[in-house]
Amino acid sequence: MNGQAGVADATRARISEAARTLSWRPNLHARALLASRSFALGLVISRPPELLAADPFFSAFIAGVESILARRGLALVLQVVDGDPETEAASYRRLAHEGRVDGMLLTYLRVDDPRFAWLTELQLPALAVGRPTSGCPFPWLDTNDRDGVHQAVRHLIALGHRRIAHVGGSPGYVHSAARRRAWADEMRANGLEPRQFVDGDFSGDGGARATRHLLALRPRPTAILYANDLMAIAGMAVAIDAGMSLPDQLSVIGIDDIPLAAHIRPALTTVRQDATAWGRAAALSLVALIDGEPQPAVALPPSTFVERASTSAPREA
Prior knowledge:
It is built from eleven helices and eleven strands. By secondary structure, the chain is α/β, with parallel strands linked by helices. Helix 10 links the parallel strand 8 and strand 9.
């Protein structure tokens, strides 16, 4: 049943047929004891539950992970904790000491991420999803969304925009910093100063607050690039409530291309990212690492710019 050598094909076929007839399934606990394995991967998320519940990107990533694990008879142990570092560290210690997982997926990478040291001390295999800033002892997948941000800013500049603001993600996250840096670099490459910036927190409320701040500036921006679609959609609502015509008086671009983005009015121009593909690639890579196999050659789909109706030439150049 384990597929090991030394069993005649005819014998293996008879045993497999008997197992199907009897509806026999391997005992996972017995397998785990024999192999000193839990047959599970771990994922600890230190973010507010209400933010995760509102974020379609996270559920798409989990769906990608589960699509791989289900086919291999593996489980995902998911824990959502508050932002307290000690509570988070305790979750990793408990999973390791109780032998509940064989390895960890690390998402939402942070600048100077403390999890690298925690898991090294716990001797737990891990895979980072994203490009670490420095000091990562584990393999990682480059989910490069910088190219999409560059494309978004170039699109706005080609339309004639010169005051292009950016609403960033939560401070301290690697992808928040990467998106801000890509926006600023592309602005400077085109002779523009990246002055109009506000930190958000990837939530709708955060996007709304940041938009109110930007629209109060004089001169105010003619376009806003948001670090995710949720903030962009909330920002569009704020602008419309303020009596602005979109996209004539304000062009808006998001990041992620969540399902809702194509169905609001005006439909949201955005940077598409395939979170499900990221989840599949992360699961395949971590399973290979745990099994001592070569890392699979996974080609993550690149971020792509999706032009819709929320961008146009500015009414004032």
